[in-house]
Write a structure and sequence with these properties.
alpha/beta; five-stranded mixed β-sheet; 15 helices
């Protein structure tokens, strides 16, 4: 019964806050409409797997030079194209380069040979840049061959046939929208929950609550549940606007989208409540949450793949809940991934959910 009255109090406070209610619907709309047009960034360390059907000295030279490029990282070779695509589907590689079995012969005799590149376009920015890099590399390789063999008739050229996986149109907005839904959840669930208890402190009502027989767990849950509801409303509106404005529907299960988003919502509201418990003023809570939000967003893979970041940034990224929700939303939306494909994301988000919410309960001191 205690929790019931606390929730009644919280919802009445929310109902009186017209700005917060407006933000719940307006903020996801503006994020979906405006932010997908954000600028792209340079991409490095693109994970490449090679299917060398020719296994000739020239094909080995081609692969060796590609592996030593600053933009590509050779993660392995596969005996067949099917196995190479499987490496992309499970997230072990970003692109597959297939060299035909007559690579050296055709290049020597005719001066031209096609190679096939299949790119994972779940991150369309990475896919677009990878295609551009490999095209430039093939042109430079052909020029080097011509310079090394000036008497050869014709100009040896390597032609490329590209296949973009999971995002055939290479539309960058499709990559951005699932990640931008994360930003709306981060702001509404993280920021608003971070201001919750500290508002009680500034208004003096926290002292009245502290002298009541309310348990810490009931108090914290009463503070969290309204923001869980706000998070799910915002999430649903984000999915709706993505479909209405861009025609983007998830390739995977809508249930898994809600499941992984729920883990993130629960984790971020708990994290925000920890900040609220530790802060003395609203200004302090806002600045602390802003500090963490900037780190969470910049290191989440929203704008640039985590693999392209320096090693130290990748370590910090592994501690950010946004990294895992961005990966989960993109893979479910564009690849149709299921639970087993996203098991690492589940483990990370579930762990953070437990840690942040237990911390939120323990950090609330009724003696304040």
């Amino acid at each position: 019964m205690t929790l019931k009255f606390l929730l009644e109090k919280e919802f009445k406070q929310l109902a009186r806050n017209k700005i917060m209610l407006a933000l719940t619907g307006f903020f996801p709309l503006m994020v979906i409409l405006v932010m997908p047009w954000a600028a792209t960034m340079d991409i490095k360390n693109i994970r490449l797997t090679v299917v060398d059907n020719d296994r000739s000295p020239l094909s080995e030279e081609f692969v060796d030079k590609l592996a030593h490029s600053t933009y590509f990282r050779l993660v392995g070779t596969c005996p067949s194209y099917r196995e190479g695509i499987e490496a992309v589907e499970v997230g072990e590689a970003d692109m597959v380069l297939e060299i035909p079995d007559d690579f050296e012969k055709s290049l020597t005799n005719t001066g031209s040979v096609p190679v096939q590149v299949s790119v994972n376009a779940v991150n369309s920015m990475l896919g677009s840049m990878a295609q551009s890099y490999i095209t430039t590399f093939c042109r430079e390789f052909s020029q080097d061959l011509q310079a090394a063999n000036p008497d050869t008739a014709g100009t040896p050229t390597v032609q490329m046939t590209s296949i973009s996986k999971f995002n055939p149109t290479m539309d960058y907005k499709y990559t951005m929208i699932p990640a931008l839904i994360m930003i709306s959840l981060l702001v509404l669930c993280g920021y608003l929950s971070a201001l919750n208890i500290v508002v009680e402190k500034e208004q003096g009502t926290i002292e009245q609550l502290n002298v009541t027989p309310i348990s810490r767990t009931s108090f914290v849950f009463a503070k969290l549940i309204p923001f869980w509801i706000i998070g799910f409303v915002s999430l649903t509106l984000g999915f709706f606007f993505a479909w209405l404005v861009y025609g983007l529907s998830p390739a995977g299960s809508l249930g898994w989208l809600y499941f992984f988003s729920a883990l993130f919502i629960f984790a971020m509201t708990g994290f925000g409540l920890v900040i609220s418990n530790k802060s003395s003023t609203m200004q302090q809570a806002v600045f602390v949450m802003f500090f963490f939000a900037m780190i969470f967003i910049m290191l989440s893979g929203l704008l640039t793949p985590v693999d392209s970041m320096p090693a130290w940034a990748q370590v910090i990224s592994a501690l950010c809940p946004t990294t895992y929700i961005v990966d989960a939303l993109r893979n479910i939306y564009l690849k149709g991934s299921g639970f087993l494909d996203l098991l690492p994301d589940f483990i990370a988000l579930a762990t953070m959910l437990v840690v942040f919410n237990v911390w939120a309960v323990l950090s609330y001191k009724k003696s304040e």
